[in-house]
Design a protein that fits this description.
- It is a single chain.
- Helix 1 (10-20) crosses helix 15 (351-363), helix 7 packs across helix 10 (241-252) and helix 7 (124-137) crosses helix 15.
- It is built from 16 helices and 22 strands.
- Among the domains are: 2-122, 3-Layer(aba) Sandwich (Rossmann fold), CATH 3.40.50.720; 140-224, Alpha-Beta Plaits (2-Layer Sandwich), CATH 3.30.70; 386-458, Alpha-Beta Plaits (2-Layer Sandwich).
- Strand 4, helix 4 and strand 5 (94-98) form a beta-alpha-beta unit.
- The longest helix has 14 residues, at 124-137.
- It starts with a strand and ends in an 8-residue tail after the last helix.
- It has helices at residues 10-20, 33-42, 55-60, 76-88, 103-106, 108-111, 124-137, 173-176, 217-224, 241-252, 264-273, 288-293, 309-321, 334-340, 351-363, 445-451; strands at residues 2-6, 25-30, 46-49, 68-71, 94-98, 120-122, 141-147, 152-158, 182-189, 192-195, 207-213, 233-237, 256-261, 279-282, 301-304, 326-330, 347-349, 368-374, 379-385, 409-416, 419-421, 434-439.
- By secondary structure, the protein is an alpha/beta fold.
- Residues 142-227, 369-454 form the RCK C-terminal domain.
- This is Trk system potassium uptake protein TrkA.
- It comes from Verticiella sediminum.
- Keywords: Ion transport, NAD, Potassium, Potassium transport, Transport.
């Protein structure tokens, strides 16, 4: 697929890196020629320096041959204009825009065919906020994502010595969780993925990737991670787009929320934007005296959500040392996140990894409805819908055990109506089934997509 990406910032470069590795033809456009040169040295892609709203720049970037345009610059206006130009001048078939302002989501007529001609909107801030909300809701998990319209939950949980699964066989999970539809897809031991069979012994400190009926997710995670209490008191360092959005959502759900913001003008604005029960404080999150005054030792969750990785790391480490029960930090640099997560910082959130799945579901071939990056991008979970008949589909009419999945990919579950089926049930796939798959080798993704593409005879 020929894909034109506008903007080489954190989102754009992350998107490019993910798509290049899947044998797409990528062209990256940005005003910063030095940044483009650096990315071109590292990635197999083409670059064009210039303003992405200019017709001449888009033409030089090959917009006339592009199958898809992804506008993810830091400017909403530039992304909007670029999508309209791409449609009206170059007739690019699919156009995706990163939009920060919530106003555009509330007025679909502005982005539609009569407006800026955008097929799909992505919002990193909204994606990260949702991601953090789920982590607060499930304090036992390192990562939580949903599939099949919220019917299935996939969670990454570290087993401790008090867990019901410690030193047990993976196949015993049904006995340990009676009445719960749950299946262990993969485990990580010493940072290395291990394929799971019913005879695999789960050890303390293993990280389990478990798929569970969403109705029983809380009970299942409590059994896997004993001792984790539900959070009620939350402190957020950073009142930017993500911090303010998260504070608003958490307050609506009944959490006691405090927001620390170092910029006085921003504090004054937050005090008018956020609900009255959210306490907005002016100060530095690395100020030990301030944290002590605000009862950091009684805080259930501390989140460092500023735009500064180093500041987020330091404030999280300080909050943890002073007694915060669980700390999370927004860390853009992947190397920083890998170093810090699992140390004194409980969860390191990479904003690009939280966002990339929202975009990838529009890029994937076949009827793919959800994509989530897991464990800092090492694994990908994909939800696809099976279509067609046995004669036109490679999956419909076949049992799970008969489907030839490429090495590095496996079916984790399928959802049929309100019914959740796992590979141990060995069901026959039907048209309309939602199939949830786990992919640990990125290069096999095209082969996985091909399984869910209906042959021409179907039409």
């Amino acid at each position: 697929m020929r894909i034109l990406i506008l903007g080489a910032g954190r989102v754009g470069s992350s998107v490019a890196e993910n798509l290049v590795s899947e044998h797409n033809d990528i062209t990256l456009v940005d005003l910063d020629a030095a940044l483009l040169a650096s990315l071109q040295e590292r990635l197999d892609l083409r670059v064009v320096a210039g303003n992405c709203t200019h017709i001449s720049v888009l033409e030089a970037a090959g917009a006339h041959d592009a199958d898809m345009l992804i506008a993810c610059t830091a400017s909403d206006e530039a992304n909007l204009v670029a999508c309209r130009v791409a449609r009206l001048i170059f007739n690019v078939p699919q156009r995706i825009a990163r939009i920060r302002s919530q106003e555009f989501y509330e007025r679909p007529e502005i982005i539609g065919p009569e407006g800026f001609c955008i097929d799909n909107l992505i919002s990193p801030e909204r994606s990260v906020t949702t991601y953090l909300q789920r982590l607060i809701e499930f304090p036992q998990a390192l990562q939580v994502v949903d599939f099949a319209d919220g019917q299935v939950t996939l969670a990454l949980v570290q087993v401790d010595k008090r867990s019901a699964m410690a030193h047990q066989l993976a196949g015993d999970i049904a006995e340990l969780l009676p009445g719960v539809k749950a299946h262990i897809l993969l485990l990580f031991r010493n940072d290395k993925p291990i394929e799971v069979s019913p005879r695999t012994v789960v050890e303390a400190n293993d990280e389990l990737l478990i798929l569970v009926d969403a109705r029983h997710a809380r009970r299942a995670l409590q059994e896997l991670r004993a001792g984790a209490r539900q959070a009620r008191r939350v402190m957020i360092a950073g009142g930017g787009n993500i911090g303010s959005r998260l504070a608003h959502e958490l307050a609506a759900e009944g959490y006691a929320v405090k927001v620390l913001e170092h910029d006085l003008a921003r504090c004054e604005k937050l005090s008018t934007l956020l609900p009255h029960k959210v306490l907005v404080l002016h100060g530095d999150a690395t100020d030990e005296a301030l944290l002590e005054d605000e009862n950091i030792e009684g805080t259930d969750v501390f989140l460092a959500l500023t735009n500064d990785d180093e500041n987020n790391i330091m404030s999280s480490l300080l909050a943890k040392r002073m007694g915060a029960r669980r700390v999370m930090a927004l860390i853009g640099r992947r190397s920083y996140g890998e170093l810090m997560e699992g140390s004194r910082i409980d969860v390191a959130v990479a904003p690009d990894q939280a966002t990339i799945g929202e975009l990838l579901r529009h890029v994937r071939r076949g009827d793919v409805v959800a994509v989530h990056k897991l464990r800092r991008g090492a694994t990908e979970a994909i939800e696809a819908i099976a279509h067609g008949e046995p004669a036109s589909s490679k999956v419909v009419g076949r049992r799970v055990s008969q489907i030839k999945m490429p090495a590095g990919a496996a079916i984790g579950a399928l959802v049929r109506g309100e019914q959740i089926l796992t590979p141990s049930d060995d069901p026959v796939l039907q048209s309309g089934d939602h199939v949830i798959m786990l992919v640990t080798r990125r290069r096999v993704i095209p082969a996985v997509e091909a399984l869910f593409q209906v042959s021409a005879s179907f039409f």
